[in-house]
Amino acid sequence: MAVAYRYLWECSRFYRRKFEEAGLGPDSVHSVDDLPKIPLTHREEWLEDQEANPPWGTFSPLRDEDWLERGWMFFSTSGTTAKSPRVFRHTTFDRDIWGYLGARGLHSMGIRNGDLAILCFSYGTSVGFWSMHYALHHMGVPLISGGGANTERRAMFIQNYRPTVLMCTPSYVLYMGRKMEALGISPRESSIRLICASGEPGACVPATKKRVEELWGAEIHDHFGCTEVAMPPLGYPCSHLVKRKDKPVDSHLMEDVYIPEALDPQTYQPVPEGQPGVLVVSNLYSEAQPILRYVMGDWIAISTEPCECGRTHARAVGGLRGRNDKLIKIRGLLFFPAAIEDAIRSLPEVGDEFRVELDHVGDMDQVKVTIEPSPQTAEISDRERRAKVVEALKGTLGLRVDLEVVPYGSLPRSKFKSDRLTDRRPKLFNPHGE
Amino acid sequence: MAVAYRYLWECSRFYRRKFEEAGLGPDSVHSVDDLPKIPLTHREEWLEDQEANPPWGTFSPLRDEDWLERGWMFFSTSGTTAKSPRVFRHTTFDRDIWGYLGARGLHSMGIRNGDLAILCFSYGTSVGFWSMHYALHHMGVPLISGGGANTERRAMFIQNYRPTVLMCTPSYVLYMGRKMEALGISPRESSIRLICASGEPGACVPATKKRVEELWGAEIHDHFGCTEVAMPPLGYPCSHLVKRKDKPVDSHLMEDVYIPEALDPQTYQPVPEGQPGVLVVSNLYSEAQPILRYVMGDWIAISTEPCECGRTHARAVGGLRGRNDKLIKIRGLLFFPAAIEDAIRSLPEVGDEFRVELDHVGDMDQVKVTIEPSPQTAEISDRERRAKVVEALKGTLGLRVDLEVVPYGSLPRSKFKSDRLTDRRPKLFNPHGE
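^ Those are the sequences you sent over. The predicted structure of the assembly is below.
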């Protein structure tokens, strides 16, 4: 902690300015106990810094000449919110650490020598799956790169070469499984025994997890991090946590290299253990990208209760629950999109794809849900299906929704990250104020 | 040589059988002088072996358990000729060697610390660009992965982050440059100073090389190998060879780890130095994929004359000239497709894309060439252009062709490897017999 602080003080113009503004000096931080003195960093500050100082910003302590001397790769966010994506340069030192820490996460899930992995992602500049790629290298676990290949070719790779581990987004794992079924290949009978999913909360959404496990006859594990601060996994379940069916899916947190805090979103004071708070993370190990008290923004409940697997690091109870800024309020009730996903996918009458549209008409929020029938429940009439689903959603979400049922296959298929919720209501209220 | 032979004798069922059939024993090969005793291996033998022993064949000396213990990645051919692609498993040992040998090639071209590379390929299971990726890692040269990104996003990466080295196929480098021009971005004024092209002979085709160099204001270097036997470059030019404009573009050959032979395609006896022969290669260094006397099949002329750069390895004069099985005979004249490409692209009146169609009508080969006008020569009338091009092709190819001129932009754009020649003639003759 003292070293990371001093490194940023000396080498990051961005952090030096923030520290000085907070009245801190070069020797103000000696240990984790000094954490509360350190100002928080919000996503917007970083964005402004990079736009004011293109292309790299003044955030990273890495000097240009060092990157060009011992550089590795360049990563970026998808760049939908700004005119250019936010970018992050990492070094060979970072690559070695990523490989080691990433391997720790994959080992915790139960990946071992003897496994063969197939990575179904596009090998662009997103962090997540590159981190798995190099973690597998560190472990000596061979892999098949699915970059550029279509789902048919990836299915052929699975049939012919029998990989045991599949790495992709939760959206893609459902899409791919259904596509294989349509091609006459059973995902359940395939060689895949373990799925490592990243990019979306799906693997921690109980109903999605259950669907994937039934479709593939395999365990699904969530691997979460964030481009800004946690390139190898910040959170990953052990096989013990994934196998229990009666409780939420927790994730272990890599506490020796990341310091996670759960804070109140208004006061930014710590919430009691086990209570949900907004996740703030410090990264203590990176050469190019150390960062202290970054407001990652996802809701998290941290528990230090020992896990039955023997790991002593804290856990995120139920994984991550979505970003604070994605929390939505419908008729006075607060929801994360993942909660709606969970409610819909827990209904066997409903297919994998769905759409939720929110409108404000008169004084009332209108919720319209569009679903497809699941092909396994063809014997039910449309009227019966509609009644069952409306009733069940009212029971689980506490909302009466307008339901539209469209033919199977007509909703768009999400292959990478999903975006199934459209909120057209005027932004009249702050969902977090009362 | 003795070690590679003994390793294959002990561990490769495929080679053991071939050696025994040739009357060789475990101690029959002591040095390079024993090379002529070793039987040749043709592509078809490998294909048959893999189809008979799916999925890996009996070719590689690598045991399944070793791959699963210290595996790296899986590579494949594109699989257009067989029901499944031919596949190659490599180990962490191979990865280290690839990195080192690949770096030697890139260093020879003039890539150094201080450079930043952008790789525009899909990061699938093809060998070529992965080899560059890990070679850059070995050198500490940072890179931007262009996997999954479209040309607009790649152009944005070039504009914002100023990479100095571009890696892609020769087809794509022309496509990308024109696309950038259409977007109002000048490739000539971009940060790219060096292009490393692979996958097609383009960088050694003088007219294509000249076009690329003028379009980009950058050197273009050919990086050639082959999935079966030469994963890091077998051939690569030094900056001295690329800069000279008056002679063909030679490539250095990595003679200490590959043994290249130029043989007569009928007798498989060595041709005299400097004469064109069919390329046969032995790979002496790989753990997973050593191979002796593989008929790579490209035409090559080998020269041991010292290069002015000081490198003492032999050179491929004019690079590779195409595969023996792609040699075509038109009205009694033998051509490689690259010769046609060279003739067409040397005409300033013609755009980058073209199509060649061969038919046999009556007793006569018909050659139809479809071109687009180059946008830089809009002042010439269509009739004038047609006359100029027909005349010039008659002069360089020695053939009268039917010429069709279609509007600029109407021929399909090749983004990966090109396939611009269609031969619909009945297979009546062996082009190599007289």
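Chain B touches chain A through 40 residues (CB under 8 Å). The radius of gyration of chain B is 22 Å.

Shout if you want it in another format.
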